[in-house]
Amino acid sequence: MEPSGFAGPSEKVVKPLTPEALAAYKAAQERAGVIYISRIPPGMQPAKVRHLMSAYGEVGRVYLQQEDPKRAYLRRKYTSTKKPHFTEGWVEFKDKRVARSVAEMLNAQPIGGKKGSRWRDDVWTMKYLPKFKWHMLTEQIAHEAAVRQAQLRVELSQSRKEQREYLKNVELARVLDKRAERKRKISGDTGEGTKEDESETRPQKVAKQDGAPAKTPIKEKRKKSKAAVPRPEAENQLDSVLSSIF
């Protein structure tokens, strides 16, 4: 239980339990009754709840559950109220019959009080819990606290695992980048060397000498060959002319 949400009896006397005292304590626990308040007005503290409930009967223990830590952080950050707020509560009456009657009488009724008081118009929302004892509440709260601690440990281990995986990936990417840069440097050096070797080993064209005959184009050769071959009609005309002369 949260110490700030607990309001026990004002006088505490620690004595060793005798068999008679233990039997009396068990009988008192059997006679006690617990009511559940589903909504606590904003700003109401356990001492105020005890004071209001004491007007209807003898009150044993009071416990109010604080609001969620995230919600409390945001409220303190953006509002001027710094005191803790409570969301729900349990009130133990010494007599279960009184607890039942108080829950039936005050449920869905305004809190009331003096005119202009802070919680005058707020409404009680409570219910009597039959066969419910205070030790059940403490066991439930301890179980919820253990569950929250287990969830917190799981979340922390998961976050650590994700962080290690992220750092591992970052280191792997850095190593791969270095390897790629090294390969680019090596390939650039080898590429320049091969170009120089090719330029050295490439055969150079032999310059033409001034006295060497120039090669005639293929088209001119074809024209000359066509002009050199005589046609048969031209030969016949030449023979007729020569025969007329001689």
Task: Tell me what the structure shows.
It is built from seven helices and five strands, in the order βαβαβαβαβααα. A five-stranded antiparallel β-sheet has the order 1-3-4-2-5. It has helices at 19-31, 46-53, 69-78, 96-106, 134-201, 218-228, 232-245; strands at residues 6-7, 33-37, 59-66, 86-93, 126-129. The protein is of the alpha+beta class and 246 residues long.
Short description:
The chain has helices at 19-31, 46-53, 69-78, 96-106, 134-201, 218-228, 232-245, and strands spanning 6-7, 33-37, 59-66, 86-93, 126-129.
Secondary structure tally, helices: 7
Percent helix? 40-55%
End-to-end separation in angstroms reads 153 Å
Looking across the biggest beta sheet, what order are the strands in? 1-3-4-2-5
- Percentage of β-strand residues: 5-15%
Shape field: elongated
| Gyration radius from CA atoms, angstroms | 54 Å
Taking pLDDT < 50 over at least 5 consecutive residues as the criterion, the unreliable ranges are 205-212
Mean pLDDT: 77
The biggest sheet amounts to: 5 strands, antiparallel
The SSE order reads: EHEHEHEHEHHH
Number of strands: 5
Helix/sheet category = alpha+beta
Defining traits:
five-stranded antiparallel sheet, 7 helices, 5 strands, alpha+beta, elongated, 55% helix, 246 residues
Helix and strand layout, with pairings?
Layout (H helix, E strand, L loop, with lengths): L5 E2 L11 H13 L1 E5 L8 H8 L5 E8 L2 H10 L7 E8 L2 H11 L19 E4 L4 H68 L16 H11 L3 H14 L1
Antiparallel strand pairs: 1-3, 2-4, 2-5, 3-4
